Amino acid sequence: MSAANSAIPGVTEDRVTISIEDGIADVRMNRADKRNALDNAMFTSLAAAGDYLKTLSELRAVVLSGDGASFCAGLDFGSFQAMAQGSSGQGGSVNAGAMSDGRITHLAQQVCWVWQEVPVPVIAAVHGHALGGGMQIALGADIRIVHPDTQLSVREVHWGLIPDMTGTLMLSRLVRPDIVKDLVFSARVFSGAEGFELGVVTRLSKTPQADAMDLAQEIAGRSPDAVRGAKKLINLMANDGAAQQFAA
Asked: Residues 165-185: pLDDT tens digits?
């Protein structure tokens, strides 16, 4: 089984690449020169990638990562400033705050939440930086394998933004409320090693991409019906009332 980006509606190869082998999808943010910063084209491509993967009955697991030196450095403010001034730049024409077709969430939320909707386990392999929106995308995955030196931050408050991409909701299910508030209100940068101690990080690894692929292969060897059923059951328990919380 393989996939060509040109055949996936909404996915542009200069933002996201997808390769599928033996039931494992290797999804990579592909904007290394910008540390995979999020512009409109990246938002659209990530959401479309998740929507595409949801349709594949042969899929067993997904590894989500970033090409180059970082997982994702967060919003590309330059791109959005250019759009505000009347230039679409390279960001595309879809506003990140627009309602996504048929969704309970807007597009910026969907790039995080879509990984919960993919019916198989999604493993984020995180290195370099996962800041702001990048951190929230990682939180949307089922499992996070992170280099201990990775710089992590729920960074939005530092920039005067509300962290409403659904990652904060996922964070609140991983750690105590006071820790969530500490990380969100201070917008401080913390290491992958500290993230593991806090419960934000699932596993630490000096080679997160390789270890994520190893785990994906292990999962792919299990009963696909059992794995899909287990994710659905866990999410039903954990995500009850999520739509109302997104709209708050």
From this structure: 888 889 999 999 999 999 999
Contact between residue 53 and residue 9 where contact means Cβ atoms under 8 Å apart? no
For residue 64, the cross-strand partners are: 27, 124
In degrees to the nearest 10, what's the CA dihedral of 174, 61, 193, 158?
Answer: -60
Q: What angle in degrees, to the nearest 10, is found between the helix axes of 40-53 and 77-84? A: 110
Task: Give yes or no for a contact between 63 and 217, defined as CB atoms under 8 angstroms apart.
Answer: no
**List of domains in the chain:** 5-247 (3.90.226.10)
CB 123 within 8 A of CB 216: yes
- Candidates 75, 71, 183; CA nearest to 123 is 71
The helix, strand and coil proportions of the chain, stated in percent and rounded to the nearest 5, come to: 45, 15, 40
How far is residue 176's CA from residue 183's CA, in Å, rounded to a whole number? 11
What is the bridge-based pairing of β-strands 129-131 and 61-66? unpaired
C-alpha count within 13 angstroms, C-beta hemisphere, residue 169: 21
Paired strand residues for 123: 63, 143
Q: Are 192 and 150 in contact (CB under 8 A)?
A: yes
> Does the model's pTM come out above 0.85?
yes
Based on the number of CB atoms within 10 Å of its own CB, is 153 exposed (0-12), middle (13-18) or buried (19 or more)? buried
Asked if the model's pLDDT at residue 104 lies above 80, the reply is no
Count of beta carbons in the 10 Å neighbourhood of residue 161: 15
